[in-house]
Write a structure and sequence with these properties.
Blueprint lengths: L11 H5 L7 E3 L8 H8 L8 E5 L8 H4 L7 E5 L4 H8 L4 E2 L7 H8 L4 E6 L7 E3 L7 H6 L3 E6 L14 E3 L5 E4 L15 H11 L7 E4 L3 H11 L7 E7 L1 H8 L15 E6 L3 H9 L4 E3 L2 H4 L2 H4 L5 E6 L2 E3 L4 E2 L2 E2 L2 E2 L6 H10 L4 E5 L3 E3 L5 E3 L1 E2 L17 E4 L2 E4 L5 H10 L3 H14 L2
Parallel strand pairs: 1-2, 1-5, 2-3, 3-4, 5-7, 7-9, 10-11, 10-14, 11-12, 12-13, 14-19, 15-22, 19-23
Antiparallel strand pairs: 6-8, 15-16, 17-18, 20-21, 23-24
Helix pairs in contact: 7-8, 8-9, 14-15
Length: 439
């Protein structure tokens, strides 16, 4: 079967010639990354003009089209969600940010934006020519079905799972060109030891989680700490339906807690769109593919689908919250730190779920560079900062001082609830603002 597609196998340098001046090129999202094609495209810097590259949440240490062209004479890089490396490049003016809500991304590609060339990272093919999408399903099928030219880059290090009913696979026949070669080790996402505040917040959240809960865990210290506490708890039959599967879920699996036995959707499977974590996580996905339902954004980020499951619990981080419950999850003033991503998707999914709960988890205060204490609960989201989640969407707020339930409350009642979980040093001034504003 593979011999039928050998004519499509070319070097990355040949495949890169498919890119023309003025093209939009898609690199994908998260840990999955077209490493060889990025290098080959960068090598064409002097041959091309006005090539625009889209990607997001890149955690590998470099993007060659940025590094080779700091003057941006040929390449412009656009990010859907600022990752670690992209944040450094953004500070140099080399990354442009594009706001989006992740569940809407497939609609953008179908009807609103152009994609000329798609660099799709895939796993090694099986004997029938099927490849897995490795650690980043993303919205790849939607993207390459709307692209002029599709280039598959085979990464020999990717897990080879294809997903239930082919939810995570593509076929060599769908590519115009196929490239292969030696790749660097997969990018790893690691976690620091939790702080005392992380532990206090996690304890407050764990009290709210019942047996059989279906979990969506964001990437960060508090979700990771919640998972470790759940692994050591008496809870059982927990489930996974999450944007990014991480080592947090591996901890739950090792403890025998992650059975997915009570899920009304994808019963028995852990459902995810991206994988990001340790090599042990990637090995788990490779060695036990029967445990997973990796799906695309349309499937995983659907609030309607989350609403079909009981006790759906989303645990996410924030930067600031104001007294009305508006949340900034992605900016420090005018500086873009990350992106909205799928947060709104999972908050709405929790609202729709019977027994569901969506948590925004955040330190009540932080220490500024000058050593002063600054409240993360503010009277209002300041000008220049982003409102990632509107007040009408936020359900629960957790800090080290407790959990505030906001849904169904008036503005004045919301302010009182928010003040109850604020740092004690700021409660008086917040209460004074609330008294004057929410009469």
């Amino acid at each position: 079967m593979l011999k039928d597609y050998m004519h499509k196998f070319v070097t990355p340098e040949v495949a890169a010639k498919a890119v023309q001046s003025g093209d939009w090129v898609d690199y994908g999202f998260g840990g999955g990354y077209p490493e060889l094609m990025d290098q080959a495209l960068a090598a064409r810097k002097d041959e091309l003009k006005d090539v625009k590259i889209r990607g997001g949440l890149v955690i590998r240490p470099r993007i060659e089209v940025i590094e080779c062209d700091p003057e941006q004479s040929t390449f412009s890089y656009y990010s859907w969600h600022i990752g670690d490396y992209e944040r450094k490049m953004q500070a140099k003016g080399l990354v442009q940010f594009m706001p989006m809500i992740l569940r809407q991304l497939p609609y953008l590609y179908r009807d609103h934006i152009r994609v000329d060339v798609a660099f799709v990272p895939v796993s090694a093919p099986d004997a029938d020519g099927y490849c897995g999408l490795g650690i980043s399903n993303y919205a790849w099928r939607t993207i390459f079905e709307n692209a002029r030219t599709v280039i598959f880059e085979i990464n020999e290090r990717y897990p080879k799972l294809h997903g239930v009913n082919g939810s995570h696979r593509v076929h060599l026949s769908e590519a115009d060109y196929i490239v292969e070669g030696e790749h660097e080790p997969l990018p790893l996402r690691t976690y620091k030891d939790p702080s005392d505040i992380d532990i206090a917040i996690a304890k407050n959240v764990v009290k709210e989680i019942p047996d059989g809960a279906v979990l969506s865990l964001g990437v960060g210290g508090v979700p990771f700490t919640v998972a470790k506490m759940l692994a050591e708890s008496d809870l059982k039959d927990l489930g996974c339906h999450t944007g990014t599967i991480s080592d947090a879920f591996l901890y739950l699996h090792k403890a025998g807690k992650l059975t997915n036995a009570r899920k009304e959707v994808c019963n028995g499977y852990s459902t995810w769109n991206l994988a990001m974590g340790s090599q042990e996580l990637y090995d788990w996905i490779e060695n036990e593919p029967e445990l997973f339902y990796p799906g695309d954004v349309d499937f995983v980020h659907s609030p309607e689908r989350m609403g079909q499951m009981s006790n759906f619990v989303g645990i996410m981080g924030g930067v600031q919250l104001d007294l009305m419950g508006q949340e900034n999850a992605e900016s420090g003033g005018k500086r873009q730190l990350s992106g909205t991503g799928g947060q709104l998707d999972f908050l709405e999914g929790a609202f729709r779920s019977k027994g569901g709960k969506g948590f925004i988890c955040m330190n009540s205060a932080r220490t500024a560079k000058d050593g002063s204490l600054v409240s993360n609960i503010v009277p209002f989201i300041p000008g220049g900062s982003v409102v990632s989640s509107p007040r009408s969407m936020n359900h629960y707020v957790a800090t080290e001082y407790g959990v505030a339930k906001l849904s169904g409350l008036s503005l004045r009642e919301r302010a009182e609830a928010m003040i109850s979980v604020a740092h004690p040093a700021f409660r008086e001034e917040l209460a004074q603002y609330a008294k004057e504003t929410f009469k």
